[in-house]
User: What shape does this take?
Amino acid sequence: MNLWDTDWGITIPALIGGFGVVVGVVGACWYALKKRRLARWTKTKGRVECYETLPAEGDGFYYNPRIVFSDTFGRDVRFGVEARWNNQVFEVGGEIPVRFDPSNPYNAVIDQWSDSYAEVIVLYIFSGFLITGAIGMACFFRSTK
Assistant: This one.
């Protein structure tokens, strides 16, 4: 088969559509993994103990919160978040939602976005654009033959 004899009007849309399907499958796997991980993790309330202040480029600072919460055995667990926020998002001493792995409480995250599946939705939208674009390209190349 000669490369120049390839019908690119079919091949290119097929490749783009195939990539769209792969992105959709990645989105489905991401959703399943996130849902499974969150089902194992415990939700609790923590508090902001302090902020680590780092110099930012130019004027200003970055703030990384240090969070403390009680695990399932009542022990205080402290963890830092490499957030690099431009301001102190939560008040020092204020409550903050935390989710942690009961088998390793130091594996913890701020629970601000864990119930949101925004990244999965973005992957599905991107996948839909790719597949729709591929179908549109295939129709266009078919009609111009």
